[in-house]
Structures are given as structure tokens and as C-alpha cells.
Amino acid sequence: MGPDKKMLLNIVILGFGFMFMFTAFQTCGNVEQTVIKNFNSSEFHGSGYTSMAIIYGVFSASNLIAPSVVAVVGPQLSMFVSGLVYSGYIAVFIYPLTWSFYMASVLVGIAAAVLWTAQGNLLTINSTEHTIGRNSGIFWALLQCSLFFGNLYIYFAWHGKVHISDKDRRTVFISLTVISLVGSFLFFLIRKPDPNAGVSEASESLLPPDGVSDKSSEPSPQGLCSQALEAFKKAMKLFCTKEMLLLSASIAYTGLELTFYSGVYGTCIGAMTRFGEDAKGLIGLSGIFIGVGEILGGSVFGMLNKSNRFGRNPVVLLGLFTHYLAFYLIFLNIASDAPIAPEEGTNLQAFLTPSKEVALLCSFLLGLGDSCFNTQLLSIVGFTFPEDSAPAFAVFKFVQSISAAVAFFYSNYLLLQWQLLIMVLAGFFGTLTFFMAEWVSVSKRRDSDYDSI
Fold this sequence. Notes:
Organism: Lepisosteus oculatus (Spotted gar)
Protein name: UNC93-like protein MFSD11
Low-confidence stretches: 199-219
Number of domains: 2
Family: Belongs to the unc-93 family.
Mean pLDDT: 81
Subcellular location: Membrane
Distance between the termini: 33 Å
Region (Disordered): 200-221
């Protein structure tokens, strides 16, 4: 098998591993607040929003050390161990206890930083300058298939149910735990790429030189510490570059809307009593439509990236307009108190008679717009920092996760219209700064190519 085909196969395996893992985890995040509201136990006092705020808060802090961890352990083993932690978090819902729920939230935050840093490293060393956009699209499309399969299961399992029983909860979360474990073991199928076939020869400085953890000679403890410290220094240095500072506003926006579509919007739909007995089942159906939008966007915009004829800016602008349309329709269709409604839901009505079709259309638009931003951000980070992909993606996830943590925190308190307003403003500034970062990045690459002639 040629090096290009081997690298493409690695990207596909990476995508399938994440698809299985996040079929479980994203489905868990989509329904956990609804599950917790229906959990009959006076001993449990957890909140799904608070759990997610902890996860993303710890995630953001852990991104500062994640490149060092991946440097020592290797990206392949890092992803496997992180996957086991994700499975443990999902398993907590089989029989929830407050202390284990929040403890698992902290551990998943640490594991998430390591997982996504290792993913960014493997994506880059299995890509070239000409395939990084295509591979980002392929990975993103496979990853977002997780929204389709997991939520399809939720739709059929909970369709017509007004209350989620303990038996319903255990059945769902046992299944999700097994699915997550399958994804973790798939990472062992990733093969070592040709070290000279990646984005650049300098990719050899990205954590383990072979891209996986099966090195024949073990470095000394002093060498590991030096390597870890160097990875940490690179992350701090990259965070202060002009390109990353400009991209930070756009990355922060993806964290805010990640919170909204992965946790808040499903809870809003499930709280709408005017949707009748279908409300709980619509949570799963909403997740499916988000997934369809993500998959469509990842596939189409990945192909656009391959030619790179029009650049990344038009795709990001399309994402902004798509999200603005979704936010406006949600504002008209969903009751203002839906995010913080009690177990029995809300009887309030927004400006329109609540429509299931409009709610699902908004789910699709949320997914499509999200894929516009994320495929282009993955592409521009890999394009701009090919020689330091692991620390670059660690910074990416640091900014994204800290904004998601803030959003999950305020989701406990803010009415729907205020959450939408925050995202409208953040989306505008994020798009503007992305345009500037794209111009700086392309200009620098053009100057570099000119100097090398």
C-alpha cells in the first residue's frame, strides 16, 4: 500500500474510532439533563449543565499540559486511555451517584484534552499540505455520524414516553458504554505513516517521531521531561502568535454553539409540553438532524477544501448566515424558559405556534453551520502550524473548551433569548477575525514560498 493510501486509511480509521466514541458521548450529553430530571432519587443532586461546565472547564486547563502528555505517551495510546475514561463517564449513568458523577466529569475533562491533542497530531502527520483540507472534511463527516446513530437509537427507545424510567435509563447507558469501548479499541488499527510523507519534514518534531507509541528504543526520563517541557513551551508560544490570537474569537464561538446544540437545544425541545408526547423522542430526532447537517457540511466543504479555489472565508460566512437563520427561527419557535424549565416542562409559547418541523429544521441548520466553522478551523490550524500541530490543536481546544464551560454555566440561569443574543454577537466577531487570520496565514505562506525560490 502506497504512503498516500496508508495515510488516508489512517484518517478513516481515526474517524471511525471517534464516530463510535462520540456516538456514545454526544448522545449522553444530549439527553443527560433530561435523564437527570427524571431520575427518582433523593440522594442524587447533580446537574447535567454543571457536569458539562466542569468537563469543559477542566478540559480548558488540561490543554496546557496535554501536549506534554502526548509527547511522553504517544498519540495512539493517549487516545485509547482517554477513550476508556469517556466510557467510564457514560457508565456512571447506569446508577448515578452525585460524587461519582462529578468525579467522572473532572476525569473526562482531562481525558478530552489529551484525546483531542493526539487527534490533531495524527490528523496532521497523516496529511500533506494538499490533503489537510480533504482529510479534515473526511474526519469531521465521520465524527458527526455519531450524532445520527446515537440519537436514532434514543428516538426509537424513548418515542412516546412522557417519563424516562430507571430501566429505560440503564438499557440506554449500558448500550452506549459498550459502543464507546468499541471506538477506543479501533485506535490500535492505526498504522505508522511514512515520517517523510506528512505536511513537512519538520513533522518529525511533533511528539513521537513515528506518530505512534511503538518506538523501539525508550528515551531516558530526562529526555521525556525535556520533550514534555518543550511541548508545553511551544503551546504557550503558539498561543501568543498573531494568527492564533485572531482565530481565538472564532474558536470561542464554536465553543458557545457547541454547548447550545449538544446540550441546551435538546433540553429545550424535551421541555416543550406543546409538542405533546413526542417531546422526549424529538430530542433524539433533533440530534439526528444536527448530525445530517454536520455530515453534509463535512463532506461538501471537505471537497471544497481539496481544490481550495475559493479559500475558507466563503464557507465560514455561509456558516454564520446559516446559524443566524437557525437562531431567529428558534427564537420564534421555542419558549423563552425552555432551557431552565422544571421536570414537567413549560407551557409557555413563543411568537409562533410551536412547530416540530421548524424545530427539526433548526437542528439541521445548527449542524450545517457548525461544520462550516469547524472544518475550516481544522484546516487553517493544520495549514498554518504544520510543524507544531499538537500544541496548536491543544491551544485550539483550550480556547474552545473554556468558552463551552462558560456557556454551560450560564445555561443554568439565562433565558433562551439571552443565550441566542450572546451567540449572535460572538459569531459576528468570530467570523470577522477568521477573515483576518486567513489573510495573514495565506500572506505568510505566499512570502515563504517566494523566499524559497
